[in-house]
């Protein structure tokens, strides 16, 4: 790590005062910096684009935005909301397309009030891991086909009521403490 150095640095003051972002504990503004230098910010229901020293509302939703992942090769944002994964693909800065890609209730047998708590994209961008409120871990491929689902709290597949060998060995070779060893040697 000592061979790393900063080769480019730029300070930019973003004009937050011009954006009608609600300031409360449930509405946190998050930041996306793309490799091509584009800057996006998002809160619970808006995606903002910083361009030409202006912060403009680029996309407004009717659902709650939890997380956004970007695929710069395809110019797509993947939006994770309570029970859906949506994509926003765009041709340019003014025209975008919103598509509902995957719905939790339609693809997995879950309770109606279950929702996606968090998601993570693998470093190679080949798998998307979702965690639901009911502690279900769901693995999806890049084309949103289900790879696996596992209930984290379930013990049905973990050897419940099976004997376990912990490798203690024979009774003669086990450590019993100095008091028991002294009693056995005197007997």
Q: What does the model show?
A:
The protein is mostly beta strands and 187 residues long. It has two helices and twelve strands; from the N terminus they run ββββββββαββββα. The protein has a single domain (18-154), classed as Methylamine Dehydrogenase, Chain H, CATH 2.130.10. It comes from Diaphorina citri. Residues 1-184 form the ELP1 first N-terminal beta-propeller domain. This is Elongator complex protein 1-like.
Short description:
By secondary structure, this protein is mainly beta. Helices cover 7% and strands 37% of the residues.
Strand content: 35-45%
Which residues form runs of ≥5 with pLDDT under 50?
Answer: none
Strand order of the largest sheet: 1-2-3-4
Backbone CA Rg: 26 Å
- Helix-strand topology string: EEEEEEEEHEEEEH
User: Average pLDDT value?
Assistant: 75
| Name of the CATH first level | Mainly Beta
Total helix count? 2
**Total beta-strand segments:** 12
* Proportion in helices: under 10%
CATH fold-type name: Methylamine Dehydrogenase, Chain H
Distance between the terminal alpha carbons, to the nearest Å?
A: 64 Å
- How many strands, what sense, and barrel or not for the largest sheet? 4 strands, antiparallel
Summing up helix and strand content along with how strands pair, one would put the structural category as mainly beta
CATH architecture: 7 Propeller
What's the domain count? 1
What is the element layout, followed by pairings?
Blueprint lengths: L29 E4 L5 E4 L3 E6 L2 E7 L6 E5 L4 E5 L3 E7 L5 E8 H4 L8 E6 L5 E6 L3 E6 L4 E6 L26 H9 L1
Antiparallel strand pairs: 1-2, 2-3, 3-4, 5-6, 6-7, 7-8, 9-10, 10-11, 11-12
């Amino acid at each position: 790590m000592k061979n790393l150095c900063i080769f480019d640095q730029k300070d930019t003051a973003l004009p937050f005062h011009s954006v009608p972002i609600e300031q409360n504990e449930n509405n946190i503004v998050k930041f996306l910096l793309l490799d091509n230098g584009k800057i996006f910010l998002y809160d619970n229901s808006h995606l903002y684009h910083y361009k030409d020293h202006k912060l403009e509302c680029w996309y407004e939703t009717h659902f709650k935005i939890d997380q956004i992942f970007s695929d710069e090769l395809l110019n797509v944002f993947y939006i994770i909301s309570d029970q859906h994964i949506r994509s926003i693909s765009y041709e340019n800065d003014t025209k975008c397309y919103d598509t509902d890609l995957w719905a939790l209730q339609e693809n997995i047998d879950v309770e109606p009030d279950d929702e996606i708590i968090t998601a993570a994209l693998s470093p190679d961008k080949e798998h998307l891991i979702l965690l639901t409120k009911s502690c279900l871990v769901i693995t999806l491929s890049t084309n949103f086909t289900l790879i696996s689902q596992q209930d984290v709290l379930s013990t049905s597949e973990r050897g419940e009521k099976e004997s376990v060998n912990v490798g203690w060995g024979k009774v003669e070779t086990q450590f019993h403490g100095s008091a028991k060893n002294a009693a056995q040697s005197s007997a």
